[in-house]
Amino acid sequence: MNIRGIGAIYKFEMGRTLRTLGQSIASPVVSTVLYFIVFGSAIGSRIQAIDNVSYGAFIVPGLIMLTVLGQSVSNASFGIYFPRFTGTIYEILSAPLSFIEVVIGYVGAAASKSVIIGTVVLITAAFFVPLRIAHPFWMIFFLVMTSVTFSLMGFIIGIWADGFEKLQLIPLLIITPLTFLGGSFYSIKMLPPFWYQLSLVNPVVYLVSGFRWSFYERGDVSLAISVTMIAVFTAVALGIIAWMFRTGYRLRK
């Protein structure tokens, strides 16, 4: 394992975050405040408690997931696409690094950023509603694994995209809708039977449900199913990345 090579990629990517601190950290905080003003105060006061949890507190896990998913995908996709755009990807491909080490460097940095931002959002939310984390271990597990999994997906998008427009295509048209329809701001148990069953096709449901369970021991699906699904998502993403590196898919184009 080339620790020095992984560290070089990781430090460079993390340094890019520090250079754009306002965009990386301040923007999610402002968005969180706005969500709480609109959903927590204006709308939340008109909605009854869900599963004996006040609406303002209920949406906190979903709000964190919404931020983490978006940041993970965008950070990882831009991180690997930019070297392709500038041509410096050839230096990475010619370096004594395996594809696993390259992925660890880029995905590790993107996931670290997302975990930091998710933590900042959690702290910000604590100023608006009283929070209770029933299972801190599972909270950290879902936060980290969600960041890693969607950073892997962002890495795939960054390799697949052949223009800056495509970097935003899947996040805007697929990731964001799935997140909003994945129970981030409501429980899918509140839906009619047909829409409830249809929602179970949405992979984000399992991430939000598991993360919310770690807070309030309330989830739309069981913890075991959530853990199994996130393991499956991670394995599939790793398999796609391995295929991309093995075939050289768009890495040299």
Counted beta strands: 0
- Tell me the series of helices and strands, N- to C-terminal: HHHHHHHHHH
Question: What count of helical segments does DSSP give?
Answer: 10
Average pLDDT for all residues: 84
Taken as a percent bin, the fraction of beta residues is under 5%
Q: Distance N terminus to C terminus? A: 27 Å
Rounded to the nearest angstrom, the radius of gyration is 19 Å
Helix and strand composition category: mainly alpha
Which spans of ≥5 residues are poorly predicted at pLDDT below 50? none
What do these coordinates show?
By secondary structure, the chain is mainly α. The chain is built from ten helices and no strands. α5 packs across α6 (136-160) and α6 packs parallel to α10. The longest helix is centred in the N-terminal third of the chain and has 32 residues, at 55-86. The radius of gyration is 19 Å and the shape is globular. The two termini are 27 Å apart. The mean pLDDT is 84.
Give a short overview.
By secondary structure, this protein is an all-alpha fold. Helices cover 77% and strands 0% of the residues.
